[in-house]
Amino acid sequence: MKKSDQLGTLLMDSTFRILLSVVSFESSTTRTLENIINSLQVLKETYYNTDEHSTNIIKMISKFCKNCASICSKKLDEMINLIDSGEKEIITSEDPNDIVTTMSAANSSQSCLLKYITIIDFLFFQKKADSKSSIGNENLLKAYVEIPFSELWFRFSTYLNKFEAINGNTSNVTKILFLLPLLESVMIDCKINLLFSENKINFSKIGKQFIFEHKTLLNSMIRTSPKLMNGPFSILLTLDSSAVDFDNKRFFFKTKLKQMKRFDNSSVDFTVNRSSIFSDSFHALYSDLNSKFKTGKLNVTFVGEEGVDAGGLTREWYQLISRQMVSSEFSLFTPVSDENNDTFIPNSNVPIDTKHLSYYEFCGMIMAKAIHDSCFLDCHFIRPIYKAIIGKNPGLKDMESIDPEYYKSLIWILENDITDVLDIT
Predict the structure, then answer these.
(1) Does residue 72 have a pLDDT over 70?
(2) Is residue 335 within a helix (H) or strand (E), and if so which, with residue range?
(3) How far is CA 374 from CA 299, 377, 401, in A?
(4) Which of 19, 240, 244, 362 has fewest C-beta within 10 Å?
């Protein structure tokens, strides 16, 4: 290597280390972290654009991570020992003491650990191109895996178990809010390990186990501060949606919808006849390629009626069109049974042609738009239809909502010996 190249490498390495050191300053803010990440990203793309350079970068960051993890582990051990010795009052946000004060500082070991793992995530795993390159770099992966996150999460879990045994896991979550940076670090580590899993690379399962062991506590924290789902806590939905309680998922979903609406002020004006509301709406909305039906605000006018749609007419339109959507006039849906005539299933006798397929697609658009607009439809469908909306495959249990007797027969067959009972051909 030429002397000039050696000097250039030393200069860049020094620059990198200085920027990483700034993270631990007490005055380092979120804005500071953003600027550091942007600077590091430019350096990485300009001077550190090979696998070898990437490995060197993560080794630099991992040294800082290991130091922070070591300090965090010692603090957690102190907190665990205090609980074991009966000093229950000393390990919560509501009781100032040396440990809580130290852990709550802006430049605390847990805060710095969160910043360093965030840097790793942004530099190597945030963009698809970066992720693909990182996953293919065995030395880089090895350097990340050598950061002792598993041991730290195990200690953290031990502390939380003892905390929950004393304080419960629902009503006293504010007492451990001072450990939020450490919790967010767990989430980011889970996100990175999930990427390893998707690419069939050996990964740590400790983080995932941590989440499921403490999911009641985590959901209580989300209820206390719903904005947590806008950050690293959102990985809970990707990891396994069952880890997040329904009310928290609903709040998160509605928040995202509000954010979408904030950037779209367009409106969709159309006129329909009450007696032919489905057909008129289909021609006005589905057939119009320029319509902003999906994201715009609906302004409905009924033929022969005066009035300004301030929301009431739109809600009425949803009710009327949903009734006509499942009516016998179009035969798109039929009741599940005579006993269950208010739950509908797609009509298997409908011709499979372009027209009817378009009708079904339009029905799906109406359902999605109703969710987007927080409006009710005056009809109910079988569970597999709702599962299809969120991309889940139906299971045997879903048969119960379609044909309860048939479902019971299938369960009986699964749970009993059917030798000489049924003649199956």
Answers:
(1) yes
(2) strand 333-335
(3) 15, 10, 25
(4) 240
pLDDT (average), residues 262-277: 82
Compute how many other C-beta atoms are within 10 angstroms of the C-beta atom of residue 60: 15
Beta-bridge partners for 268? 298
Task: Give residue-wise pLDDT tens across range 187-205.
Answer: 999 888 888 777 666 666 7
Contact predicate 286/278, CB 8 Å: no
Distance CA 392, CA 407 (A): 20
* Alpha helices in 294-337, H assignment, sequence order: 312-325
Tokens of 125: 């795993």
Q: Where are the alpha helices (DSSP H) in 340-403?
A: 354-373, 383-389
Report the distance separating Cα 131 and Cα 154, nearest Å: 27
Q: 82 by DSSP, 3-state: which? A: helix
Strands 267-272, 297-302: pairing is parallel
The two tokens of residue 399 are: 């048969």
Tokens encoding 190: 């889970």
> pTM for this one?
0.73
Say whether pLDDT at 425 is over 50.
no
* Helical spans, DSSP H, in 108-245: 109-120, 128-135, 138-145, 149-167, 180-198, 206-213, 215-224, 235-239
In sequence order, what are the residues at sequence separation of 6 or more whose Cβ sits closer than 8 angstroms to the Cβ of residue 323?
378, 379
Q: Both tokens of residue 60?
A: 């630099």
69 alpha-carbon distance from chain centroid: 26
What φ, ψ does residue 54 adopt, rounded to 5°? Answer: -60, -40
